[in-house]
Write a structure and sequence with these properties.
Elements (H helix, E strand, L loop, with lengths): L2 H7 L6 H33 L2 H12 L1 H12 L4 H18 L3 H19 L6 H41 L1 H17 L4 H7 L4 H21 L1 H15 L5 H6 L5 H17 L19 H15 L8 H28 L11
Helix pairs in contact: 2-3, 2-4, 2-14, 4-5, 4-6, 5-6, 5-7, 6-7, 6-9, 7-8, 7-10, 8-9, 8-10, 8-13, 10-11, 10-13, 10-15, 13-15
């Protein structure tokens, strides 16, 4: 059997699509089902005085590493024994990776998964060999690489946040536009923000960019898609527009320009910060996770004594950046693009 035949048999495909899109997207779902929903439940429990919600949220958040790793394994079509063994790999990589734990989980879970798939059902004692190989490869790589991966990711995130503090106008534009574009592309902006531990002012710019894409596409395509499209894009994902973007890339201009405007407004005027979980920075209005993350950060800052209270300007900035400005600006830019003949009726139909 040739190497190519063996890899085909084991469904091991070294491709950007599988690792850069499928695996990263799955990792974001794992984060959402653990750390993100856990944070939301805990915050709701604290605000409503319901200890059960706090406990449920804490339990969910505590398994973020295993949830990410298992989600990645599922996306890579891992056999059952490999899939279940990845829980231990995720726990090790996330723990040893520190602030850059999600990136460590992403890289190490892929390697451990493919190693497990390679030996799966190749011996008569598969029930011992497959989980052993998966766990040992994952744990070994976690010990050797996770601290360095975590430090590198954390350092890069810190540089981005430092640069945003130093140059809030220009970095507000850059972060908002790039993270917003990542949100609409078939990759995971949430996973990127989580991997870089992107919070603070840079996190606020990321929220602005993501909201501009989701709310922007939702309102500018209302004529074609109606209320269903408004909800599916505004509270779901702007990724639904990717086929239309491929057909006519100019339909992407209005949301991108809107993000270039809202980003620096968020950083310079309202000083909007995301001090909740980093993954929330890359979620936008998907399930209202971005705005909820900003609110969670306010509450955490108040509890830590870093903030006295939630002010009128806080709420005004969040509502304008997350909802009002993306809608208004995108419609204005879209109107100009339609007048110029760049966007036509039907170009945004889902």
């Amino acid at each position: 059997m040739t190497r190519e035949e063996f890899l085909e048999k084991k469904d091991i495909r070294f491709s950007l699509s599988r690792y850069g899109i499928d695996a990263m997207g799955a990792m974001a779902q794992g984060l959402f089902a653990s750390l993100l929903i856990g944070t939301i439940l805990s915050t709701a429990g604290k605000q409503l005085g319901i200890p059960f919600l706090v406990d449920a949220g804490t339990f969910a958040s505590s398994v973020a590493g295993p949830a990410m790793a298992v989600s990645i394994g599922y996306a890579l079509h891992a056999p059952q024994l490999v899939l279940f063994s990845l829980a231990a790999v995720g726990a090790a990589a996330n723990s040893l990776g520190g602030a850059g734990g999600p990136l460590a989980v992403y890289l190490i879970a892929i390697a451990a998964c493919e190693a497990g798939k390679a030996v799966s059902k190749e011996t008569k004692v598969d029930i011992l060999v497959t989980p052993a190989v998966t766990v040992l490869v994952g744990a070994g790589l976690s010990v050797l690489l996770a601290p360095a991966i975590g430090k590198a990711a954390s350092s890069l995130g810190s540089v981005i946040m430092w640069a945003t503090e130093l140059q809030p106008f220009f970095m507000g534009i850059i972060v908002s536009v790039l993270v917003g574009i990542a949100l609409t592309l078939p990759i995971s902006s949430a996973a990127i923000c989580a991997a870089l531990s992107l919070t603070g002012l840079a996190g606020g710019a990321a929220v602005a960019g993501c909201c501009a894409q989701m709310i922007g596409f939702a309102v500018m395509s209302y004529k074609e898609n109606g209320a269903g499209g408004l909800v599916s894009q505004g509270l779901g994902t702007s990724m639904l527009q990717m086929p239309n973007i491929i057909k006519n890339p100019k339909v992407w201009i209005p949301p991108i320009l809107a993000s270039a405007v809202t980003g620096p407004i968020a950083t310079c005027l309202f000083r909007l910060q995301m001090n909740g979980t980093p993954v929330s920075s890359g979620m936008g209005t998907c399930g209202l996770v971005g705005p909820i993350g900003v609110y969670t950060g306010w509450i955490q800052d108040i509890e830590a004594g870093l903030k006295a209270s939630v002010t009128f300007m806080d709420w005004a900035g969040l509502i304008l950046i997350a909802f009002v400005l993306p809608a208004v600006l995108t419609l204005l830019f879209a109107y100009a693009c339609r007048k110029a003949g760049w966007i036509h009726d039907g170009d945004l139909t889902l």
